[in-house]
Structures are given as C-alpha cells and as structure tokens.
Amino acid sequence: MKIAFNEAVTLNNSTLENDLLLCEKHGFDYIEIRLDKLKEYLLTNTIEDLKRFFSSSFLKPLSLNALEEFTFRNETDFRLMKNDLSLMVEVAAAVGCNTIVAVPAFGIEKDWNVIKQETILRLNDFLSVIEGTDLRIALEFVGYPHGSINTLDKAKEVIEEIGHPQLGLVLDCFHFYGMNSSYESLKTLSVNDLFLFHIDDCEGKLPGVLRDHHRVWPGDGVIPLERIISALQEKGYDGPASVELFRPEYWELDAEECIRTAKEKTKNVIQRMKQ
Ligand code: ZN
Q: Whose C-alpha in 2, 38, 47, 140 is 20 to 30 A from the C-alpha of 85?
C-alpha cells in the first residue's frame, strides 16, 4: 500500500512549499493539498510553479481538500464556495490531480431526509462543474455527534442515491471509529466508490467524545486499523493510505520531524499487515 501525506498533519507549522520538499525528501508517494495552504502558496507562487514541482518530483498530488461545510450555506456563501471549486479544478487540471474532497455541515438540527436532499442538491451542483473532466468529488463524512453526515451508512446512502461515477467517498479511520460506523457497511461498500482512504489513530476516549485533536500517530491509539485495512484489501482497494492528523501537540514539533514521523508510523502499520 502506498503512503500519502495530508497537510493537516503540519497545519500550523509548515507551508505547502515546505511540505512538498519534505514529503519528497522523506519518500511519500502522494500529497493531499489543503485549500488554505494552496491559497497561501499562490500569494507568492503560481500554478505553473506547482506544476513544475510535480513534473520533476517522485511525489504526486492525490487530492485537493476540502470544500468545507458545503451544505446549508446561503446562496452567496455557496457561490463563493464554487469559486474555490473553480480554483481547485484549475489547479487539479494543471498538476494532474483528480480528486476534490467535500465535507458536509455540522450542527444541523433537521430531519435526515432534509439533510440528505440538501447534500444531494449541492453535490449535484459540484458535479455539474466538473462534468466533462476526469475529476471526482469525494464526500467525507465526519464522525462527530453533530456532523450532518456522521456514519459510513449515511454517506453511502447519499452517493448511492446520486449514483454518479465522478462521486465517491473518503473513508477516514478516525471518523469511521468516531461514531461507531459498522463493519457491515464497510463490507458492502463498493471499492469503486472508495476514492480516498485516510489513516490515523486516536486516544482511548469513547466514540461520540472524540474530536480531531484526539488523533494520534497511526499505531499509537485504539482504532483497529488492521481490521479496517484488511476489509479494504479484501475488496481489492489498491489506493494509498493517507495519513491525516490534526493534533496541536504535533504542530509544536518541527515540520520535518512531523513529516518523518508520519511516514515512519504509517509505514509501520502497513508493514505489520504484511506479516
Ligand atoms: Zn479525513
């Protein structure tokens, strides 16, 4: 299994420019580029610069993330979000990246049917923007009690209802564990619908209590990563595992130490699977 780096790991202690150099140095296969770091990068660099980097690097772009909280926005906010999508489409096309992550809203006290219809409406809107390209939208459910889509089942329900080849899911181990998503639903997930796999781990707090800052290096926590990876391998998933953490403690480290450790810890978990 190849290994990708999600820039959330160094959210507050590095830049895109620096992440690119360090991920290349430490042998990551892919990088998931965060929208905030991309915008910062483009203040002093061009899309052409990014393209030039990837044309001579071993490291390749895996995704652009994310269209955050894309549901239940007012029309002006949603139009601004579509501007972000346009930027991502332009960058993705230039650097040869084909996946854009979309994260639904939090704290929506509405019936599931209303949430589902709004999510479908907005996703269809994104799909109309990428029509005719080879880009894909990956919906990421968030395993928080107040996440509007917080289990794998619910995320599957949405993408299966739309049934579009350019729409799939992100499976994030932390979010899968965070609200007790079922292994049954993982078993029945079509491998064609699995666009990205986020690997992470967490402290031993109970599902429902866990938040992003409880994430720890893969292998250092309580998530049964082997069980999840085995389930993916059984269905023939051959994409990378992308390490994604949001731990403030790790942002205190030097960026290179973060990137080196992320690679080692993730590699160790994957190597354990082979034994
Ligand atoms: Zn994730």
A: 2
